[in-house]
């Protein structure tokens, strides 16, 4: 049996026992940075079933197919070290200085920064780091990976492991061949035997078959216990390292993610803050502008002090003017009134004087107003001198006017003609002469324009009329035979007599005997035929003007 | 025989006379009925009860012009007393015949008919509407255009009576084109015609802004001011009423009047006359001042305030005083500048005394109080406020103290004057309820002065001092 088989065997056996909650375990490992030791190995082992492990095995498969020998060697050296020193950590260090990097198995450098070889992630890390190293990087990986899982190349299938069916077959076969923890297992014996074979120096004092058997019997138990211990410890380390690694990665991822988020948030906040700041600034500026504008506007148009002052001054000035005018108006009114009163008084006095005209002093006898004892006569005397005595007729008329109630039209008993004065003559003199009726004059004045026939016709009326005639002729043509005067074509045509001359009632005498209609009673209108003459302007105006000159008598 | 029986007898005697064959007798009977009805409403009612009206109305359309005149006179005499009697006339169908009479050739008949229509229309808007519905308005407008002054007068009066009730009726009168003709007659030398014309215009303008603008657009404005100088009192009164009715509507119309110099004319008019003629002028000033502070300032610079204060002190009747107080309040309520203009001429004590007097009417008291309140709330002229400190009742004192509390914190000279004139002492004597507005004002004033001064002017300070003298132990 192959030692590779054994390792894979164990691994897969463990895997088969798992309920395969891949994602769950991943979460668990991602969540907790340090896994406690007391945790059941089931969970720890389940880490190996995680996809990286499969890929890792697959890689190993691929690599081992390329360089089987080197893997074998590496694996052997690993086993050898483990077997030689049970206390050795079995850590593998990647030497960054050696190029291509090689594996170093060191037992005493556990404190140094080391990557466990058996961790699949380490393989990945190594792979990741080795890849940019150069063309030889692949081979380095090969050596690393091979050191871990070694002899899968020895399996008869070669690439059988990566195939799921092959893996299942493997799993089915594995428990029968190799139950875990049994001391007599071939899977366990094989590496030891090989180790013994590879390093014969250790058992050189046991020569021969007999001693060998005894030796095996003697150390079997302790070796087995040591191997278990080593393995458990090693696996523990591996898992812890893996968890540590996962945590680290998680931290890295979270760090980056949180940093990204934070920066995003910060940028957003910055943007908002900037926007707010800008808006505040704009608002402040807007307030400033509006303040100025409103102040200006109000002061200019609404509460303009100077305008108001001017307006009030204008109002007071206007008031003064109005007061003065009204004062003048009142004064003139007053004067007029006084004048009227005076006139009325004068009139009254005049009337009085006329009434008392008989008191006028004569040359012989002074009147009552002309006292000889006074230096000057009374003004009434002068008035009496100027006045004309009232006539008696005037009084008569007045008397008549008072009897107004008797002039009712229905009151026949005492009806008389009203004795009112005749109406005064209207100041306007009646115009002389017999004139035409006003309506006629107005008709004449406002009649519409009636142009003469000559003025109304257009200048090219003759041409137009000719055109019209031509068209008429063309329209009314009965046949389109051309007039061919001197041709022989008409020779054989018969002469058509006129309708008038070919009447069966005999020829009409019109044109032969007489040229004028003789039967006047047959006329439609008993009016003479009128020739069309060129218009005479005088006749056009006939009956349309004032004068009767144009009228035909 | 009782009066009623006499009436019955007279009516029964007069009725057959209306049907007499002699027209003179008919007319004289109608004239007699008219004079009887004219005397009082009992007689007018007797005429209505005597079933005389239908007969009159019937013969109104038939008879000659003299009879028509007399019949219209009867109708007028009956209709003038009460809305019920006027309604009785309308129920007889008199309106249609009266309107036909308006189309008569004789101006006397027209006059009588217009007069009767005017008396019917003046009672209420229903009757007025009935007159309008009868188609009287266009004919009345035609009557204005007649050459007879008397007819013009009566027609203008009738139009005034019709349009005074509602905006719609006024609008009908306007639609008939009355305004232009009325406005032309403002300068007519006849005073009585002027009275009626101005009255008609003011009755039209009083209803709404539109109508007032229509009246203004007839270019009455510089012309109507001459009527304020007329010798006739009623012309003055009606002119002032017209201006008031126009000014009361909008600030723009008031502004127009101010720009035309109307305020000065009105103020002069107030100064020239007495009694009720002043009232519309005073109210006009109040209306103009109420519209805006600029217009109020225009009233002040037109020397309106002294004139109003003269009215306030001179007039005997309470309603004119109330109007003057109201107008002053309207002028003074705008800004401290306005209030100062009023306070300077010492109106505030007069207003206060009017408010305090028991004899003055309730309306006057309310108006005086409102005016005082309006003016005091804006007044910062402290010398005028100080006398009020001593006389005013608490509800007025509140405003006075409030003004002091507003001014004193910012004016050191005023603070000094306030102390020397005894104002601070008076303030300390006021007993205000703690927590009231008055107390707050007093506290504000007290805070303007050092504590010892306030204490010095507090009422019981001398006793406190004496007590301290008593309690003092001299150091020997």
UniProtKB/TrEMBL annotation, chain A:
Predominant location category: cytoplasm
Biased composition (Basic and acidic residues): 333-345
Protein name from the UniProt record: Spermatosis associated 17
GO term, biological process aspect, one: spindle organization
Annotated gene: SPATA17
Region (Disordered): 1-35, 333-354
Origin: domain of life: Eukaryota
Entries under InterPro entries matching the protein: ASPM, IQ_motif_EF-hand-BS, P-loop_NTPase
Pfam families reported in the protein's UniProt record: IQ
Record GO cellular component, one term: spindle pole
Subcellular compartments: Cytoplasm
GO molecular function list: calmodulin binding
Protein source organism: Crocodylus porosus
Entry keyword set: Calmodulin-binding, Cytoplasm, Repeat
Biased composition (Polar residues): 1-22
Automatic annotation (TrEMBL), chain B:
Pfam family, one: Arm
An individual GO BP term: sperm axoneme assembly
Gene Ontology molecular-function annotations: microtubule binding
UniProt subcellular location: Cell projection, Cilium, Flagellum; Cytoplasm, Cytoskeleton, Cilium axoneme
InterPro entries with a match to the protein in the record: ARM-like, ARM-type_fold, Armadillo
Keywords: Cell projection, Cilium, Cilium biogenesis/degradation, Cytoplasm, Cytoskeleton, Flagellum, Microtubule, Repeat
UniProt keyword annotation of S-adenosyl-L-methionine present: no
One cellular-component annotation, GO: sperm principal piece
Assembly notes: Interacts with SPAG16 and SPAG17.
Function: Important for structural integrity of the central apparatus in the sperm tail and for flagellar motility.
PANTHER family, per the entry: SPERM-ASSOCIATED ANTIGEN 6, SPERM-ASSOCIATED ANTIGEN 6 ARMADILLO REPEAT-CONTAINING
Protein known as: Sperm-associated antigen 6
Origin organism lineage: Eukaryota, Metazoa, Chordata, Craniata, Vertebrata
């Amino acid at each position: 049996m192959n030692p590779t088989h054994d390792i894979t065997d164990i691994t897969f056996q463990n895997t088969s026992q798992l309920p395969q909650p891949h994602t769950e375990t991943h979460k668990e490992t991602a969540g907790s940075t340090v896994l406690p030791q007391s945790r059941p190995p089931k969970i720890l082992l389940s880490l190996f079933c995680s996809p990286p492990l499969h890929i890792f095995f697959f890689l190993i498969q691929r690599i081992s197919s390329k360089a089987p020998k080197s893997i074998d060697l590496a694996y052997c050296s690993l086993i050898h070290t483990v077997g030689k020193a049970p206390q050795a950590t079995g850590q593998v260090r990647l030497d960054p200085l050696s190029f291509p990097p090689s594996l170093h198995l060191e037992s005493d450098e556990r404190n140094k920064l080391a990557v466990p070889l058996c961790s699949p992630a380490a393989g990945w890390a190594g792979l990741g780091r080795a890849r940019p190293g150069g063309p030889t990087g692949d081979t380095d990986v090969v050596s690393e990976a091979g050191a871990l899982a070694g002899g899968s190349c020895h399996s008869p299938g070669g690439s059988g492991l990566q195939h799921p069916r092959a893996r299942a077959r493997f799993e089915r076969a594995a428990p029968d061949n190799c139950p875990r923890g049994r001391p007599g297992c071939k899977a366990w014996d094989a590496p030891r035997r090989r180790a013994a074979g590879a390093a014969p120096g250790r058992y050189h004092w046991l020569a021969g078959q007999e001693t060998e058997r005894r030796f095996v019997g003697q150390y079997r138990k302790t070796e087995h216990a040591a191997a278990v211990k080593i393995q458990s410890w090693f696996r523990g380390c591996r898992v812890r390292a893996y968890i540590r690694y996962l945590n680290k990665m998680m931290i890295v991822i979270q760090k980056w993610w949180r940093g990204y988020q934070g920066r995003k948030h910060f940028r957003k906040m910055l943007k908002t803050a900037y926007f707010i700041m800008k808006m505040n600034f704009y608002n402040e500026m807007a307030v400033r502008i509006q303040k100025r504008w409103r102040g200006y506007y109000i002061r200019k148009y609404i509460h303009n002090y100077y305008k108001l002052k001017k307006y009030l001054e204008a109002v007071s000035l206007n008031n003064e003017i109005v007061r003065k005018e009204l004062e003048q108006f009142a004064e003139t009114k007053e004067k007029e009134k006084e004048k009227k009163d005076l006139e009325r008084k004068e009139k009254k006095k005049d009337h009085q004087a006329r009434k008392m005209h008989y008191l006028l002093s004569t040359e012989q006898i002074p009147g009552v107003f002309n006292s000889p004892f006074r230096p000057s006569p009374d003004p009434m005397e002068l008035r009496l001198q100027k006045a004309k005595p009232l006539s008696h007729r005037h009084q008569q008329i007045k008397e008549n006017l008072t009897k107004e109630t008797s002039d009712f039209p229905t009151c026949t008993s005492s009806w008389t003609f009203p004795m009112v004065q005749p109406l005064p003559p209207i100041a306007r003199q009646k115009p002389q002469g017999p004139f035409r009726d006003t309506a006629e004059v107005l008709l004449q004045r406002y009649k519409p324009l009636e142009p003469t026939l000559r003025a109304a016709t257009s200048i090219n009326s003759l041409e137009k009329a000719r055109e019209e005639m031509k068209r008429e002729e063309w329209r009314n043509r009965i046949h389109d035979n051309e007039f061919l005067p001197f041709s022989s074509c008409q020779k054989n045509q018969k002469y058509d007599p006129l309708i008038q001359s070919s009447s069966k009632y005999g020829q009409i005498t019109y044109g032969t005997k007489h040229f004028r209609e003789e039967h006047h009673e047959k006329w439609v209108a008993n009016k003479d035929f009128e020739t069309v003459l060129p218009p005479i302007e005088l006749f056009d105006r006939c009956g349309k003007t004032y004068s009767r000159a144009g009228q035909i008598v | 025989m009782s009066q009623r029986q006499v009436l019955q007898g007279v009516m029964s005697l007069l009725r057959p006379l209306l049907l007499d064959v002699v027209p003179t007798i008919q007319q004289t009977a109608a004239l007699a009925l008219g004079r009887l009805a004219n005397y009082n409403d009992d007689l007018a009612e007797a005429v209505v009860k005597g079933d005389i009206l239908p007969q009159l109305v019937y013969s109104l359309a038939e008879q000659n012009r003299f009879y028509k005149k007399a019949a219209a006179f009867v109708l007028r005499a009956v209709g003038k007393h009460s809305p019920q009697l006027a309604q009785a006339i309308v129920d007889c169908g008199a309106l249609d015949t009266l309107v036909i009479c308006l189309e008569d050739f004789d101006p006397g008949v027209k006059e009588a008919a217009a007069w009767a229509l005017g008396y019917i229309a003046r009672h209420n808007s229903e009757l007025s509407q009935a007159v309008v519905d009868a188609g009287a308005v266009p004919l009345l407008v035609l009557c204005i255009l007649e050459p007879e002054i008397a007819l013009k007068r009566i027609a203008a009066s009738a139009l005034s009576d019709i349009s005074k009730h509602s905006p719609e009726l006024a609008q009908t009168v306007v639609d008939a084109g009355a305004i232009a003709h009325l406005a032309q007659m403002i300068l007519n030398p006849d005073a009585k015609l002027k009275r009626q014309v101005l009255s008609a215009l003011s009755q039209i303008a009083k209803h709404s802004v539109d109508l007032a603008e229509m009246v203004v657009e007839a270019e009455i404005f510089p012309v109507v001011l001459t009527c304020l100088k007329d010798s006739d009192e009623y012309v003055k009164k009606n002119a002032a009423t017209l201006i008031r009715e126009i000014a009361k509507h909008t600030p723009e119309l008031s502004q127009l009047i101010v720009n035309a110099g109307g305020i000065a004319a009105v103020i002069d008019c107030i100064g020239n006359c007495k009694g009720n003629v002043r009232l519309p002028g005073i109210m006009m000033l109040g209306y103009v001042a109420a519209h805006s502070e600029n217009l109020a300032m225009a009233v002040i610079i037109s020397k309106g305030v002294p004139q109003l204060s003269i009215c306030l002190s001179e007039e005997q009747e309470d309603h004119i005083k109330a109007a003057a107080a109201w107008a002053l309040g309207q002028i003074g309520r705008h800004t401290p500048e306005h209030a100062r203009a009023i306070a300077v001429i010492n109106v505030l004590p007069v207003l206060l005394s009017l408010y305090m007097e028991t004899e003055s009417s309730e309306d006057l008291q309310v108006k005086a109080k409102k005016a005082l309140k309006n003016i005091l709330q804006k007044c910062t002229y402290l010398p005028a406020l100080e006398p009020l400190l001593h006389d005013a009742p608490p509800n007025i004192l509140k405003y006075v103290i409030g003004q002091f509390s507003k001014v004193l914190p910012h004016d050191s000279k005023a603070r000094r004057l306030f102390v020397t004139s005894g104002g601070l002492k008076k303030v300390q004597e006021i007993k205000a309820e703690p927590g009231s507005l008055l107390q707050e004002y007093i506290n504000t004033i007290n805070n303007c002065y050092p504590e010892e001064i306030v204490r010095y002017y507090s009422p019981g300070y001398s006793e406190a001092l004496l007590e301290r003298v008593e309690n003092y132990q001299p150091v020997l």
